[in-house]
Design goal:
single chain; 89 residues; mainly beta; 5 strands; 58% strand; elongated
Length: 89
């Protein structure tokens, strides 16, 4: 299972239509990647007379992928920034 650790920075806009604020700029930074290793259930694709073996992550939906091909994204921190919070009045 490949694990991506991500930091998120979002800028929030406060306006009369959304007094609680809404994010308009979201940036994600990959901090670390823990690789899952080689595919344990490769898929054989046949096209005419040729056969090609590909990792299951390139062919199967997520729920049918092997443990090594699945991807997990973990949010390490979420930072929210509000520029000019007093300007909404």
């Amino acid at each position: 299972m490949t694990i991506y650790i991500v930091d998120i920075q979002q800028t929030v806009h406060i306006c009369p239509a959304h007094p609680d604020g809404h994010p308009y700029d979201i940036r994600r930074t990959i901090v670390d990647v823990i690789p899952g290793g080689p595919c344990r259930a490769p898929v054989i694709i046949r096209c005419g007379t040729q056969t090609v073996q590909v990792p299951c992550r390139q062919h199967e939906p997520a729920k049918r992928q092997c443990g090594a091909c699945r991807v997990i994204i973990t949010e390490r921190s979420i930072t929210t920034r509000t520029p000019n919070p007093g300007a909404a009045a």
